[in-house]
Design the sequence.
């Protein structure tokens, strides 16, 4: 493999890292994850040095910097032999505060020196836009907003793993209803694809066989989209994968979760009754929703069926006592069950 090919891979990986860039060590790991080199998959020291020199020789495409928030004890002192003192980049809501280091600085002429300083390689906006393919998608002739670009960079940085919509909304400090329009705009441009996913609820960091869950969307750049096309009633579900803490590109830690069989069972059981209406507590038992876990699953499926207008709940009297009943409005259709992510966490 030629050096030009290796460097092209490196440029793409840097572009996906976004406006904060990454350290040389992480950059080399990203390249190694993309293409194995030798038996151990490690980049030879000679190649690493060439890559570093290539970064230094392209000041218009790459900047060297220290993150402002992490430089209290690493801020470089002005040496008598230094050509220029470090400059701070302008800081705003969407740009990290950076202390720029000139590529001519003697301390970064060697790869080892740059790594000791804690240098980060920052790709230019042109490279980031190119790697994210902003101008290749639909509506590419229209300028992308700052918040849309920032969201797109955060999604791209997750690569195959994808980004959770609710987590992105929180990170960007946007209300979910407002962030919805950001995601919708990126979808219209043809830059991302989203799929429903079950994630741990607040206070339940580990999604195992128990514990409350919520429904959100998993978002990928188009080229990292999952190869599986979800059918009506299907969602992805986060799973714990031991050792799945890769250095960079990340792996998908989601499994396919299909609600359609349970939803069909609920509708079929109600349809078998003469009045097409049953007591909710009895329906739960007949369909096998027992215990805390069963109750949570029932609430989630009931919410989906209500949203999709398959059932309705009413208050009726049974043996002289008021009880909640479930009435079937229409037979379940697995081909148009739709809205795999419509349920609410419970």
Sequence:
């Amino acid at each position: 493999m030629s050096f030009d090919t290796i460097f092209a891979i490196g440029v793409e990986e840097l572009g996906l890292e976004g406006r904060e860039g990454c350290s040389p060590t992480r950059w080399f790991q990203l390249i190694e994850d993309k293409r194995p080199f030798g038996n151990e998959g490690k980049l030879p020291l000679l190649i690493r040095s060439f890559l570093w020199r290539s970064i230094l020789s392209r000041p218009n495409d790459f900047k060297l910097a220290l993150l402002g928030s992490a430089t209290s004890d690493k801020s470089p002192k002005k040496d008598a032999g230094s050509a220029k003192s470090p400059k701070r980049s302008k800081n705003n809501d969407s740009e990290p505060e950076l202390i720029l280091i000139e590529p001519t600085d003697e301390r970064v002429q060697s790869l080892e020196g740059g790594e000791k300083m804690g240098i980060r390689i920052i790709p230019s906006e042109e490279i980031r836009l190119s790697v994210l393919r902003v101008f290749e998608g639909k509506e590419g002739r229209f300028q992308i907003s700052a918040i849309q670009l920032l969201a797109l960079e955060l999604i791209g940085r997750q690569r195959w793993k994808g980004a959770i919509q609710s987590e992105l909304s929180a990170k960007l400090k946007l209300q979910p209803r407002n962030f919805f329009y950001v995601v919708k705009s990126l979808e219209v441009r043809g830059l991302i694809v989203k799929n429903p996913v079950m994630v741990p609820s607040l206070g339940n960091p580990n999604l195992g066989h128990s514990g409350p869950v919520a429904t959100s969307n998993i978002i990928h750049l188009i080229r990292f989209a999952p190869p599986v096309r979800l059918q009506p009633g299907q969602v992805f579900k986060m799973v714990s994968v031991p050792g799945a803490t890769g250095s960079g590109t990340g792996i998908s830690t989601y499994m396919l979760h299909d609600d359609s069989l349970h939803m069909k069972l609920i509708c079929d059981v109600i349809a078998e009754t003469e009045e097409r209406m049953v007591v909710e507590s009895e329906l739960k038992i007949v369909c096998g929703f027992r215990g805390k876990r069963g109750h949570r699953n029932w609430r989630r499926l009931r919410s989906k069926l209500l949203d999709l207008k398959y059932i309705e709940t009413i208050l009726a009297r049974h043996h002289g006592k008021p009880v909640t009943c479930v009435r079937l409005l229409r037979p379940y259709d697995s081909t148009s069950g739709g809205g795999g992510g419509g349920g609410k966490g419970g």
Q: What stands out?
A: Residues 70-85, 203-210, 244-252, 337-346 have pLDDT under 50 and may be disordered.
